Structure formats: C-alpha cells, structure tokens
Amino acid sequence: MDPITQQVLAGAAGAGGDPVYVDDVFSTYLYEGTGDGSAQTITNGIDLSGEGGLVWSKKRSASASHILSDTERGVHKYLKSDGTDAEISNTGYITQFNSDGYAIGGGGNINYGDMVSWTFRKAPGFFDVVTWTGNGTAGRTIPHSLGSVPGMIFVKRTDASNSWNVYHRSLAGNSYLELESSGSAAAWNGAWNNTNPTSTHFTVGNSPTVNNNGGTYVAYVFAHDDQSFGTGSNEAIIKCGSYTGDDSSANFVDLGFEPQWLFIKNIGQNGTNWVMFDVMRGMPGVSTSYSRRLDANTSAAEANNNFVIPSATGFTLSGSGSYTNSRFSNFIYMAIRRPNKPPTDATEVFNVKYLANGSTNLGFVADTNISNYPAGTTWYWNNRLTANKDLNSDNTGVEDTAQATYWDLPTNTVNYGSYGGYHINYVFRRAPGFFDVVCFEGTGSARTLNHNLAAIPEFVIVKSRTSSYSWSVYVSHLSSPRDKAMYLNDTGAVQTNTAGTFWGTSDFTSTQISLGDYANTNHNNNSMIAYLFASLDGISKIGTYSGTGNDINVDCGFSAGARFVLIKRTDTEISGATGTHWYVWDTARGIASGQEPYLQLNTTATQVNSDYIDPLNAGFTVTSSAPAALNASGGTYLFLAIA
Predict the structure, then answer these.
(1) Distances, alpha carbon 351 to alpha carbons 368, 380, 566, 568, in Å
(2) Which of 27, 441, 467, 556 pairs as cysteine with 119 (C-beta 3.0–4.6 A)?
(3) Bridge partners of residue 619, in order along the sequence
(4) Dist CA 409 CA 109 (whole Å)
(5) What is the spatial distance between Cα 25 and Cα 410, in angstroms, rounded to a whole number?
(6) Distance CA 525, CA 546 (A)
(7) What is the tens place of the pLDDT at every residue in 362-410?
(8) Taking the model in full, what pTM does it have?
(9) If DSSP codes are grouped into helix, strand and coil, which group holds residue 355?
C-alpha cells in the first residue's frame, strides 16, 4: 500500500486507529438565538478548530438567508446559498471555531429566533473544504483530501458575485446545477470541463464561476459511500444518489442505513427548490406527520408540506410533490446516516426525571419518553419518530395527539407538557446495543423487519398505532421465545401460540426481527411501532431470576446500582389485587433501603410505597417482603435494569 493511501486510511480510522462515527463529523443542532445582540457558544461535539469544516446556519421561523461559514476562509466570513453574493464579512456571525463547536456574535440571521445549524467536519471519506485562486485555464485540477471519489461538490466564487456551481455523481461531468437557483440540470463544459472527479482531484473549466484568472474560490466536497466508518470501519455514513419520482405513497430509496439528514433536488423540472430535511427539526418515521422542509436556494421560513419518511435502511417519499416525488421526474439526493456511536455510559442514553411541567436539558438527544403522573393517570409513550402522537401502555387504545412530550426544541432539551404536579419521565436515546425504535406498516403475512439496534434484541414491545390491539412483548430469555408473547397492558402470564404466529419463523438477528401473521404484531395495513432493547455491558441488563421468598441479589454488572428497574412474573398469573403487573422503580422517586414507591406500566394506579426492592451496586435486590408477583419460591421473573 502506498504511503498516501496509508495516511488517508489512518485519517479515516481516527487517531490511533480508533473508529470514526457519523457523530464525530456531523451535527444537526437546534438553538434559540439570544435576540438581543449578545454572543453565545454552540457546543455540538464537532472539532472544528483541530480538524476544520463547514457550519451552515438557517433561521427557521422567519425569512432569512442561509449562512455558510468555514474554517478555510476563517471567522466573520460567510456566503449565502440562496444568493450569488460574494463573500461577506460580519463580526456578528461566527467569531470562533472550537474543538467542540463554535461561537457566534449577535448577528440577526444567525442568532435570532428558532435556529438550526448543520456542521460538517473535514474527514477523509466524508467531507472536505478546498480553496484556490483561479488561473482562467480550462482543465485546471484542484486537489482534495477525501481519499475517495466525491459524490457532490459545491463551488462558489468568493471575491465577486457569481452563481454556485454544483456537481453530482448522478450527472455527467458536462452537466451542472446552480445552488441558488430552482432551475433544472443543464449541460455545460464551463463548470467541470466534461471531466468527472477522482479520489484525489476534481477538474474545473474556465468559467468565471469556477476559475476566473485571479478570482478566489471555495469548494465544499462531499464523499459518497466510503465504507470506512463505524465500529468495524466498514460502514458508509454519506451517500449521493438518484431516484425517479412516482407520485405514490411508497417510493422507497434504499441507502443501506437510516438517514438523519437529506438534501434533495428535482433535476429535470424548473421551479423546484433544493430541499433539506433532518430528524431534529422533524422528519417523522410515519406518514401521519409532515417533514419540516427548508430550501437551500431561498430565504423562506420552514414549511410543512412533504412526507419524507426515514426507516432502518433508507427513506420513503410518500405522496406526490414536485420537490420530492413527482411522477417520472428525476431527483438527486445526498443522505447522511443517523448517529451510530455506541454509548460508553448509561447517562448518555437514559435519564429519569421527576419534575413539574416545563423543559429540561438531558445532556443527550432523546428519542422516546415514557411518562406518568404518579398520583394516578395514564402512561404516555411519545417518540421523536411519531412526532406529536402518543400511546398508552395501560390500555389498547389507538394513537392520539401527544399530551406529554414536545420534541422540536433546542438540542438535548425535552419539554414535558400539561400535567398537574410532578410527573415521572423515563427518557431514552436510540443507540447501538441499547435501544431502538422502528415504525412500520403491517402486512398480515410473516415477514422480517429491519432495525438499527446493532445487537440481537432480547426484549421487544410491538403496538398497533391505528387499531386497538394489545401491546405484545417478546422476551429472548424464554424457551422457544418466538412461540410466546406477553401483553404489556395486562397481568397475564406468557401466552403460547402456534409456531411463528407471534414472531415469525426466523431467529432475530442484529439487523432484523421476525414477525408472524398475528394482528397484534403485524396487522395488515396497520401503522405499527416496535421498541427494541438489548443488554449492554455496564449500561443495561435484561434477564430473569428465580424467586426464593428470601432476599435475591440480581447482579447486572453495574458499579453504582440501577436507576431504573422493570419486573414482570412470566410463569403464572396470580389472581387478586397484587396481580402480576409490570412493576417499575426509579432512583428519581427513590430506590433505597426501606420503602420506595413503585408504579405499574399496565395500570393507572397511584404509586405505592413498599419495601420490595433495595439498592445494590451491581444491580438491585428483591427483598423477602416482596409479594408472589415479585418473589415467590420457584417463580420466574423477567427484569430490565438500566444503570
């Protein structure tokens, strides 16, 4: 292997050969502008001072230009993707690039109202920023550091007013687009000199837009399908491709990964904007809520009139529309993978909050909130993927407008809605090896369902969002688990059915689960949701224990005890008031020696104080005073614990 290739591969792998994840090189960050001219710091975890990159900012709730600033041109300088203007200097815009984000001044278009920024870090196989001075000679080659063939390139002259020229791998080297324009693709040698880029260079013509003698230029160079990322350094985190619109509700684009950010352009139809979607602002995994769109070529505020639906392996264009899915039109796209960095601590992926109404900062981007008012009310299950909808685990009802959680807030913040008094919230982040959420449409026939848990699921909950069916639960720790199910909304023991009815005919894997023809898990034409959990060392543990009637220490491999414990008896149903409920405890309300309160996920009952579990550094202790629903001699009990 030549030295240059070795250097590129080492760079892609990270310092010391450590894996690089999309989390390290890309961020969608939501924030509130100060609105009073004061500065603020955006901490998004992206190393811009050490590695370099691009920050693309946009006001969401009002008309304002897009602001593009990069480390090669330096602080205070910006370009507008919705205009042809030369580079502009303004001390109120980006004032500093940091090792974990950047700082901004009081500029109105970057620090006022609801804001979004997309940060792209320079990294082999992902993104590069290149500057040069033109020489006016067609065929000029410009070096880049991707180490792979670019999928998309934006070029802008910075010293004069000229159009942005855009290259995309789905077009020939003699075709181009203009980023500030809604026009279609056109053939022209002036931009790329009829030459496709290579893994080390791209070529420009002699047009003033790319190579005027003495002109200054910047290029934003995006990779395509470089599979050197992730835990095994064998995953792609960015793809640039094309598809044909069909006006249908099921036009699926296969990426091989779930996207968190999409950039789409109809290249055959004039008057169509460059549209941008991301999961932070709202790109639900369902066809009942619009995706929130910004247009790179206009200053317009955010709009809600397109269905772009992410899934475990790609995205679906649902319905017609000239911007994303008009019949027979050709579209190009750039897609960036959802976060896939494994957690190293439970506080990165789970939090338990006991608080009154209002917002709270979790320290991570949440995906699911399970909440309850302990004085006695229904349980609300809310998800980023289902936007403002909720389900209730204490009944079989259909999805309704959310009562508890609002997701469209500054990054790491969740707002808990209109309860009276204090309420408990169990907040989860989707993360490899720990937790995943999948929205899907039932088929009524045995099938497999893709997921991104990156581990074999041990505990799976499935619910129809559009029909009143029970919450079905799969547990890998049961014998012949695909033939068995429990129901989260009742007290029943494990139910057995014909092989394959509940959970299909194939074993669960780290990328797929199996579903049968059972209405509760796969009803034809029903909108469904699945929650998938796995054991992750030091973070979560799923297992079973046998009751003894005496104190039982349940070792989960933790070092500071469990913050959350769920227990359900699996071997029998007990009649009477105790039942075999789905019991939950948490440290926010108290897990202590002596009495602590429990709730039941399957009821609206008020919390009860008891001495049924005690703290244990390695996990938790089930006490001898616990009832048969938790600790009968010979009984079998399922548990889910989170550190």
Answers:
(1) 11, 16, 15, 22
(2) 27
(3) 555, 616
(4) 18
(5) 20
(6) 40
(7) 999 999 999 998 888 899 999 999 988 999 999 999 998 766 577 888 9
(8) 0.95
(9) strand
